[in-house]
């Protein structure tokens, strides 16, 4: 049995609805779940192999996308959210009871991704399953799963499984996101004009 990449990926991708305008994410607590309401679809949704992202039990990857922070609001049991690692760039707000990460937020205004919150669409339980949320677009930080104990000899198969689903694999973020980070840095350093 091949290891799970992620439940939203293992059995093929379910396409999102491009006109989808948001939904509710709930933590895994069977009663009184923490609830976050998104007033927008996610963008740049992707599988991530880094060690910081919250993953379902047994999965090698997380699935994580972004929404503008002003489109996200905590609508139930905000008191049960706690930041997992206050020293991390992304402040991941997790339920203190079940451990699910409801959202990650960047508070450093200088960061290229300031203004975007990171969310896991598998927590959407709005009666439409994963609803119309954008399906994963690529796989990022793939080699990082080795750092968490995955055997290097299995990497070709992991990348192959992503490719068969039409997802490109990267060992950092995708080129458009890496370009966005570099552009932000160049503007800050004065190497590029502000309107580049
Ligand atoms: Zn919970
Ligand atoms: Zn990650």
Automatic annotation (TrEMBL):
Zn(2+) 1 binds at residues 27, 29, 95, 98. Its cofactor is Zn(2+). Signal peptide: none annotated. It comes from the Eukaryota. It is an enzyme of class 4 (lyase). Keywords: Lyase, Metal-binding, Zinc. Coiled coil: none annotated. Zn(2+) 2 binds at residues 48, 50, 53. InterPro entries: CENP-V/GFA, Formald_GSH, Mss4-like_sf. Residues 20-171 form the CENP-V/GFA domain. Binds 2 Zn(2+) ions per subunit. Pathway: One-carbon metabolism; formaldehyde degradation; formate from formaldehyde (glutathione route): step 1/3. It catalyses: S-(hydroxymethyl)glutathione = glutathione + formaldehyde. Its EC number is 4.4.1.22. It holds the Pfam family GFA. PANTHER family: CENP-V_GFA DOMAIN-CONTAINING PROTEIN-RELATED (PTHR33337:SF40), GFA DOMAIN-CONTAINING PROTEIN (PTHR33337). NCBIfam families: formald_GSH (TIGR02820), PRK05417.1 (NF003829). HAMAP family: Formald_GSH (MF_00723). Belongs to the Gfa family. This is Putative glutathione-dependent formaldehyde-activating enzyme. The lineage of its organism: Eukaryota, Fungi, Dikarya, Ascomycota, Pezizomycotina.
């Amino acid at each position: 049995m091949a290891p799970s990449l992620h439940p939203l990926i293992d059995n093929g991708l379910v396409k999102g609805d491009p006109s989808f305008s948001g939904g509710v994410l709930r933590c895994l607590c069977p009663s009184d779940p923490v609830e976050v309401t998104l007033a927008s679809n996610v963008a740049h949704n992707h599988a991530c192999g880094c060690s910081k992202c919250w993953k379902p039990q047994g999965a090698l990857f997380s699935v994580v996308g972004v929404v503008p922070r002003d489109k996200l609001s905590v609508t139930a049991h905000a008191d049960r959210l706690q930041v997992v690692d206050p020293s991390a760039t992304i402040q991941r707000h997790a339920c203190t009871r079940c451990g699910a990460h409801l959202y990650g937020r960047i508070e450093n205004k200088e960061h290229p991704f300031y203004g975007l919150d990171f969310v896991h669409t598998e927590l959407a339980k709005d009666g439409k399953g994963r609803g119309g949320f954008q399906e994963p677009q690529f796989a990022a930080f793939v080699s990082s799963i080795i750092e968490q104990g995955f055997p290097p000899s299995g990497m070709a198969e992991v990348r192959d499984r992503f490719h068969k689903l039409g997802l490109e694999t990267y060992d950092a973020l995708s080129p458009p996101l890496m370009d966005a980070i570099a552009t932000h840095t160049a503007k800050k350093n004065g190497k590029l004009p502000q309107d580049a």
